[in-house]
Amino acid sequence: MIARIKNFFQAANELLFSRIGMTFTVFTLVYVFAISLFPMLFLVEVANALVFAFAIILAVMYIPDAIYVARNDKGEGGQYFLVGFSLVIVWLLESRAFSSVWRWMGNPDTWLNHPFNTFFLFLLAWGLFTLAAAPGMRGGEVPIKNWRVIGLAIAVAIFVFGVTIGLVFSGKIKEVAVPTTVAELRNQCAANQPIKGNVRGSRLIYHVPGGLSYDSTIPERCFATESEAEAQGFRRAGDSPDGRRSEKQSLTFARK
């Protein structure tokens, strides 16, 4: 047991100081630094663009070979792994494209759980099934141990599905007070941070509960207190209750 623990820590140490480990560490530090400088919405768009770009490149590299393998149904495990990997790439392309277009169109609630999007979700499941079946395949035949893994995955899926459906029909899932639409979700801050920070280019305005624009404001930042918001450079909106200054005056004050 002691030898296994020693080997584990040795392997972890080698991974941490390997090129991959150092790259991951640098990436994590850059991300932590970035979230302190940029709005999360900005970082989400950057990440989405990077994922979409690499998914296109991988699709061009791998999908033609995957189509060739699929047409010859007696391939080896590595070839079927390529098919599963390509299906995952197709889902990645669709989900990122769908996400971007959904935001560009104003996040319409009617697009949620759309049959088109759900189809590609099943396509992802098919790709994952192929990846699970691929190791050790010979002549298109799936080894018994792979079927055991697939059976376990299906059993877990049935259990999760059963629990979710049970909560829905029992009404217990409705006890959680959450927004029912995307519009409501996007317009809310947590109960312990009710003040909404609104970023409009160089303008930093915060809205407090009761303000005329509070309910319709989509927050980029949320704050627990007005002092916290002002410490971050935000100024109170003029339409807030007992507003100390108008928004125009706040912007002027912020520039000084």
Any key phrases for this structure?
256 residues, alpha+beta, four-stranded mixed sheet, 9 helices, 62% helix, extended, disordered C terminus
Q: Low-confidence segments, ≥5 residues, pLDDT <50? A: 175-183, 244-256
> N- to C-terminal separation?
65 Å
Order of helices and strands: HHHHHHHEEEHEH
Number of discrete helical segments: 9
Let me know the largest β-sheet: 4 strands, mixed
Strand order of the largest sheet: 3-1-2-4
Q: Please give the domain count.
A: 2
Find the count of extended strands (DSSP E, 2+ residues).
4
How large a portion of the residues is in β-strands, by DSSP E?
5-15%
Helix vs. strand class: alpha+beta
Percent helix = 55-70%
Which of globular, elongated, flat, extended, rod-shaped describes the shape?
extended
Report the radius of gyration as a whole number of Å.
25 Å
- Average per-residue pLDDT, rounded, comes to 78
